[in-house]
Design goal:
The complex is a heterodimer of chains A (about 110) and B (about 110).
Chain A lengths: L2 E5 L2 E4 L5 E8 L5 E7 L5 E9 L2 E4 L6 E6 L2 E6 L8 E8 L6 E2 L3 E5 L1
Parallel strand pairs in A: 2-11
Antiparallel strand pairs in A: 1-3, 3-8, 4-5, 4-9, 5-6, 7-8, 9-10, 9-11
Chain B lengths: L4 E3 L2 E5 L4 E6 L7 E7 L6 E7 L4 E4 L2 E6 L4 E6 L8 E5 L14 E6 L1
Parallel strand pairs in B: 2-10
Antiparallel strand pairs in B: 1-3, 3-8, 4-5, 4-9, 6-7, 7-8, 9-10
The chains are: A mainly beta (about 110), B mainly beta (about 110).
Chain lengths: ~110, ~110
């Protein structure tokens, strides 16, 4: 069966510091991968998606970037965090069909 | 982009009663209609989905109904239990990769 991992689970970072969140998927190959952000009490906003290694599409302009160095690894990064980057970051994967399956999330607090 | 609305935003029912959450969408080209359940501090979990060539789908106590003409679909939970308490999101999708999440419905099932 497929599993999706995210780390760290929680993170507190000062404004202006760099960020690296990692997501890995097991038990599947060539998945579509996604990064979402969820602000407190709100729905999910798609940030990036990837259909293959090195292929990244950005949905919204922002302070963040994404990379996919390996087939089942997806990384979310920032060079300098802003207060507004605080939130719950969710990675998801999907087979070449409709369903998307989410990881456990990373709670980021920028102070 | 897709305009997605969920109603109600909060719902409180007694254990054993039924709960219904409605999702309306704007894009008539939408062809995939999932519902997600999110418990506090966790990633969303896909609980049921339906495609545009089907009007209703049932899985034990959970069902989804779709009215493509009126552009809405609903989540039905029967014989509710306290563990059904969570935030529920609809996320209709047109073509492409993005799920368009509603703002969520907070369901509370009281014993």
């Amino acid at each position: 069966s497929q599993t999706i991992h995210q780390w760290p689970a929680t993170l507190v970072q000062p404004v202006g510091s760099p960020l690296s969140l990692e997501c890995t998927v097991e038990g599947t190959s060539n998945p579509n991968l996604y990064w979402y952000r969820q602000a407190a009490g709100r729905g999910l906003q798609l940030l990036f998606y990837s259909v293959g290694i090195g292929q990244i599409s950005s949905e919204v302009p922002q302070n963040l970037s994404a990379s996919r160095p390996q087939d089942r690894q997806f990384i979310l990064s920032s060079k300098k965090l802003l207060l507004s980057d605080s939130g719950f970051y969710l990675c998801a994967w999907s087979p070449r069909s409709n369903e998307q399956y989410f990881g456990p999330g990373t709670r980021l607090t920028v102070t | 982009g897709e305009n997605v609305e969920q109603h109600p935003s909060t719902l409180s029912v007694q254990e054993g009663d039924s709960a219904v959450i409605k999702c309306t969408y704007s894009d008539s080209a939408s062809n995939y209609f999932p519902w997600y359940k999110q418990e506090l501090g966790k990633g969303p979990q896909l609980i049921i989905d339906i495609r545009s060539n089907v009007g209703e789908k049932k899985d034990q106590r959970i069902a989804v109904t779709l009215n493509k003409t009126a552009k809405h679909f609903s989540l039905h939970i029967t014989e509710t239990q306290p563990e059904d308490s969570a935030v529920y999101f609809c996320a209709p999708r047109e073509s492409g990769y993005a799920l368009n999440f509603g703002k969520g419905t907070s369901l509370l099932v009281t014993p």
